[in-house]
Amino acid sequence: MPATEREFAVDGGTLLVRIAGDPEGFPVVYFHGTPGSRLDLANEDERTAAAGVRLISFDRPGYGGSTPAPFGLSRVAHSALGLVDQLGVETFATLGLSGGGPFALATGAVGGARVSRIGIASGAAPFQEVPGAIERLSETDTRALALLPDNPPEAALIFASGFAPLRVATRRGHAAARSDFELPLSTRDRELFSDPSVGGALVASMREGLRRGAGGGGWDNVAWIGAWDIDIATIGQPVLLWYGDEDLMAPPAHAHWLDEHLPQAHLVLRRGEGHLGIFEHLEEMLLALVGE
């Protein structure tokens, strides 16, 4: 069945939502990367359906077709719960890629028993807790972080400015975006990114996410580079962690921190892989989330 898109009124704004896969399948709420959009996995509808999953993806505020608004982890979690309420969904799993990982965790923390399992693919752990994470930030991001927690709006503006070159590059197409985006990618990631079915889809998703500006990316970074507004010790669901040992964007230190601090973490750290493993292992991940 073809994917559908709808706007939903949630938390005083509008979220643009994409629903794909098996319409009768187990619901998985997907949280896109930073920057990204509901289109991250738009080329993966057949694999999603084959896994028996109904994939619910939405643009966070300020991305793509969703209304701009300030947000943190818990606000996005409440928005996700409001969205699934309107869809008539009671129990679901979450899956977050990269910068979407913290939001998938937050929805588990806020949603409690309604969230059966949580999947994190190359996701960020709390930057202020992971050894070496703050030191790896760019000069722009370091300036923004210095404004937190006192001035989130100004920090979001500075964080957002760091996405300006990528926004320009994605408008120029896959080849132009490769030159801007490939620097922090591992060897395997570069191979994947050169494939239009992966790299082209990611560029299209980032272009869509940034089409109205980089405000969503700015608030993403406030939410998870700044102090987290959730307590991950309260997350009692199984959390499935998928990382590559050559990931240059979410290095293994993030994986190990989450594995050590989440009560029910299950880590898969793949040798020779980087940040984009979800595009090689999506069906396996989805089957694990639905309990197959």
The number of distinct helices, counting runs of at least 4 residues, comes to 12
What integer is the average pLDDT?
95
Count all strands and give the number.
8
Main-sheet strand order equals: 1-2-4-3-5-6-7-8
Which residue ranges are poorly predicted, with pLDDT under 50 across at least 5 consecutive positions?
none
Main β-sheet description: 8 strands, mixed
Anisotropy-based shape: globular
- Give helix % range: 40-55%
Derived structural class: alpha/beta
Gyration radius over CA? 17 Å
Report on this structure.
- The chain has helices at 45-50, 73-86, 101-111, 139-145, 152-161, 164-171, 174-181, 187-193, 196-209, 215-225, 252-261, 278-290; strands spanning 4-10, 13-21, 26-31, 53-58, 92-97, 115-121, 239-244, 265-270.
- The protein is an alpha/beta fold and 292 residues long.
- An 8-stranded mixed beta sheet has the order 1-2-4-3-5-6-7-8, sandwiched between helices.
- The longest helix is centred in the N-terminal third of the chain and has 14 residues, at 73-86.
- The protein starts with a strand and ends with a helix.
- The relative contact order is 0.18.
Brief characterization of the structure:
With 292 residues, the protein is of the alpha/beta class.
Topology, please?
Blueprint: E1 4-10, E2 13-21, E3 26-31, H1 45-50, E4 53-58, H2 73-86, E5 92-97, H3 101-111, E6 115-121, H4 139-145, H5 152-161, H6 164-171, H7 174-181, H8 187-193, H9 196-209, H10 215-225, E7 239-244, H11 252-261, E8 265-270, H12 278-290
Parallel strand pairs: 3-4, 3-5, 5-6, 6-7, 7-8
Antiparallel strand pairs: 1-2, 2-4
Helix pairs in contact: 2-3, 4-5, 5-10, 6-7, 6-9
